[in-house]
Each structure stands twice: as C-alpha cells, then as structure tokens.
Amino acid sequence: MRIEDGKKHYEDIEIPNELSSMVSGLIEKDRTKRGLYDDGRAKPSLDDGKLQGTDIRDGQTIIDLKKRKGALYMMKRTAAAAAAVLAVFTLGLNTSEAFAEGAASLPVIGQIARVLTVRSYHVNEGDYRIDMEMPAVDTAGTSVQTDTDFTALVNSQIEKIVDDYTAQAKTEFQEYKEAFFATGGTEAEWADRQMDINVDYEVKYQQGTVLSLELMTSKSWVSSQEERHYYNLDLVTGQELSLNQLLGENWKELCNAEIDKQIKEQLADDPGLSYFGYGDNELSDAKFSSVTEDTDFYINADGQVVLVFPKYDIAPGYMGFREFAVGKANL
Amino acid sequence: MKDEMYEQVVSCIIQEQNSLYRLALSYTKDRDSAMDVVQNTVLKALESYGSIRKAATARAWLFSIAVHESIRYLNKNRRELPSNEELPEQIYVEQAYEPDDGETVYESVMKLPDDMRTVVILRYYEELSLKEIAEITNTNLNTVKYRLYAAQKRIEKMIKEEL
User: Domain limits of chain A?
Assistant: First the structure.
C-alpha cells in the first residue's frame, strides 16, 4: 500500500463545470479594474502620449505609431519584393478621420498583382482609436491574363468584412457606454474609456500566380478580440486554393497527424502550454479532432502550408491563436 | 507595462484551478463551499500578487492561500460538524466490485485530520517539496515530516481495520 496509489482517484475528483468560467470571470474583472487588456498589456491612457496609436495586433508588441510609420515598419512590409510606390486611394469612413500621410509602399507579387493599401488612417478621438490598413488586390498593369472578376470579388469581400467589423464594434461600444451610464456610472468613472479598432494585413506569400494574404481585425475595450481571415488565391485561374490542392488528397490525415505530433512536442518542451484533450486537459471534450475544408491556413514565405486555429478553438484562451506548419505546398 | 509577476500569477491560477478546487474540497467536503473557497483564493491571489516572495514559486504561494482560505472558511462556517472520527456510520452500499488499492487509499486519505491530509495531498498528489509544504502550512520541516509519517501510520491502520 502506497499513499501515491490514491493519486489517480484524487485527480479524478469531478470538477464543476462552472469552475473555469468563474475563474476566468474573476480574472477578467480584476484586469478591468487594473485597466489591463486581457493580454496583460496596460490599457493606454490619454495622458500617456507614448501609447497613442498602439498596435495591438499580436497582443505582445507595443509599437509607437511614429516608429511604426518609420523605416523598420516599412522594411517589414516591403522586404519580400521590390516595391512600387503608388498613389493610395483613401476612402475615409467619415470626414473627421485623419488620413495617413503619403503613399504606402506596396509589395509586388511577381508581375501579376500588387496588394494595395486602399484605406489607411489612424484616428484617436472621442470613443475610438482606430488603426486602419485595409488591403486590396490589384492586378492592373500586368501582361498576364488574370481573373479580374475574381480579384474584384475578393476585394469586395475584404471591404465588407472590414466595414461590418468596424460598424459592429462601434455599435457594441455604444451599447456598452449606454449601459454604463444607465447603471449609474459617472462621467468621471468613464473618463477616457475608448475602444481600439484595428485592421491590418500581411502578405504571407507571393510567388508566381499565387498570393496568400492575411487580414486581421481586432477590437479591444474590456478585453480584446481578434479575428483573422485568410485568402489563398490563384490569380490566373481565379480560385481560392484548398488544402486538398496544396497538400494532396491525403491532406486530412497529413494535417491531423502533424498537428497531434506538434502538440505533443510543444507540451513536452514547455509545461506552461496546454491544449484541450492533452495532458492535464485530457478529459476535455473540446480536443482537436480533425481539420476540415474550413480550417484556416496560409502559405508562409518558405512555401509551407500553415494551419491556423483561433483562440479557444483547440486550446485555452491564454494560448491565443495556434499555428502549425504542416508541410510544403504543391505550387 | 506588462507586469510579469501579475501575468505569472494569472496563468498559474488558470493552470492550477482544478487543483485548487480539489484541495478546497478536501477541507469543505462539499462542492459549493469548495467553489467559494476557490473564489476567495483567486481574489486574494490577484489582490496580493505583489506580496509573493521571490523565493517561493507562484504555485506554492497559490496553494498556501488556498489552504489558508480553506481553514478560514471552515472556521467562519463552523457548524456542529463532528470531527471525522465521529462521523456517523455511512450507509453501507454493497459494492459491485472490489475497490482497488488506490481507491481505498484515497478514501483513507480523505478521512485524515485536516493537517495530516493537507500534507499528504501536497506531497503525494500535488508533488510539492517538503520545504514548500512547510511554508504553505506555516510549519517547519520536521513537523511536515512527522505529519507525513503519522498519516502513513494512520492510513495503514484504517485499511487494516477495514479488511
């Protein structure tokens, strides 16, 4: 008889379902009280000039807007290819918005297409602090026959996502504000509460006729929420590339095996990580089961297919977005 | 801007929430009270994360709050609970299977007096070091060792009587 033998039974004690929501609720409340975003970063205040126009995209970096507009930032944007500078069509959402200065630098995708910043502005006034960099794919000026209807469709989709997102974020914040005052909140307590709205993009891959583009939208007030959209396009055939096309007919098995393997490796390397259904979370019913046609992915600069799982999807929220490079794309 | 210590405490709370609950339950014996204790523990931890000592790990520190809150809860809500030894005989349920050793041991552990049981749980089930346990239970190393030894003897006796 060893006392340790009882360990399994101790660990099998049933945990109430409400425990985790209670705990995360307490944490969220405490962060709000401290004025922290849920990634632990301090909420910028208006007194703190340095923090205006911060980049919350990855929840880690705090980039001064001035620096962001500086050389480093531009380099990042343009490193992938020689860039052409074009005039930017800036379509403001409303007249009070301060338009970004000058033309954005544009990565060139072979000779086929450019990704243009068609809407670019940075506002910090009233209830909102908005950082907007909206992309559009442009195939004008190439000698190759491209499917322009297709790119137009993609661009209108992007625009709709951005517009809907911005409008919804503003509605939410106004509702929050109304509720705040309706429940006895005072002007002093409200102080400089603002909602951050960010739209940005990144060209993940650009070779030949293929373009892989990531569109990110995020908003934050009480906590921050981020969405990512991916476009993996063949601009000549005018289609969105599928995992089947890029990884072959065994794509599901390949992806599933690779993800399972990488999760196990990650957990072995770092005990601070966790995934639903693995290790300590073994009993979770949210365990990753299989990729589907709808699983998000992009192609990285090395031509690898990278699968993307949103926050809460296969791992607890603190793990954020999870990405897995699963293999070379057949391009 | 990012307060590393705060973030460390937060992720530790998230990671250890189930353990905190089990530990609290071992004191309160009922689910709702254990939830209350966890709630108080989390609040206390978020409030006083600054007081965490460099030497202590966040995990051990969190358990010490949980132990403290459990005891505080019991004291505050002390009803006429008989001590474990005097608990009325539980209704005998014909068991459809032979309980394995682990189960018998586990049940015996849960019947230990609070101070012995806590040391056993922290040592064998949460795998903390004796030194950490001494800090958590606010005693010294020898007391921890003695309690573990006494717990072992007590469990052996309980199991023998049951057979």
Answer: 47-241, 245-328
Q: CA nearest A3: which of B95, B107, B141? A: B107
**Per-residue confidence (pLDDT) for residue B48, from 0 to 100:** 84
Q: How far is A238 from A272, CA to CA, in rounded Å?
A: 43
Q: Would you say the pTM of this structure is higher than 0.80?
A: no
User: Are residues B40 and B100 located together in one domain of the fold?
Assistant: no
- Select the residue from B2, B35, B36, B156 to test the A interface by mutation, using most A Cβ atoms within 10 A: B2
Q: Per-residue pLDDT for chain B (163 aa), expressed as one digit of tens each?
A: 357 788 888 888 988 999 999 999 999 988 988 999 999 999 989 988 877 766 568 888 899 999 998 988 888 776 544 444 444 444 444 444 455 678 888 989 999 999 999 999 999 999 898 988 998 888 888 889 889 988 998 988 888 887 6
Cα separation, A195 vs B92, whole angstroms: 61
Together in a domain, B62 and B99: no
Query: Which of A13, A18, A34 would you mutate first to test chain B, the one with the most B CBs within 10 A?
Result: A13
pLDDT tens-digit series, residues A208-242: 888 999 999 988 865 567 889 999 999 888 889 99
Interface test with B, best of A8, A9, A12, A51 (most B CBs within 10 A): A9
Output A163 or B160, whichever has higher pLDDT: A163
Looking at residue A6, its pLDDT comes to 87
SS3 A240: strand
Q: Say yes or no: B109 and B50 in one domain.
A: no
pLDDT in the model for residue B78: 65
B121 touches chain A (CB under 8 A): yes
DSSP reduced 3-state for A212: strand
Would an 8 Å CB–CB cutoff place B102 in contact with chain A? yes
Q: Which residues of B touch A3 (CB under 8 A)?
A: 105, 109, 120, 124, 151-152, 155
Of B6, B35, B107, the CB nearest to A22: B35
Of B7, B47, B101, the CB nearest to A1: B101
Instruction: From the options 1.20.58.220, 3.90.640.20, 3.40.50.1580, 3.20.20.70, give the CATH code of A245-328.
Output: 3.90.640.20
Return the structure tokens found at A70.
């500086």
Number of domains in chain B: 2
- Does residue A272 belong to the interface with chain B, where contact is any CB pair within 8 Å? yes
pLDDT of residue A70 exceeding 70, the answer is no
Q: Which homologous superfamily is A47-241 in?
A: Fervidobacterium nodosum Rt17-B1 like (3.30.565.40)
Structure tokens at A103: 């033309």
- Alpha-carbon distance A299 to A204, whole Å? 6
- Helix %, strand %, coil % of chain B (to 5): 70, 0, 30
- Are the C-beta atoms of residues A319 and A311 closer than 8 Å to each other? yes
Q: Let me know whether B70 and B97 are in one domain.
A: no
Domain containing B57 equals 1-81
Do B32 and B95 belong to one domain?
Answer: no
Chain B neighbors of A13, CB-CB under 8 A: 21-22, 25
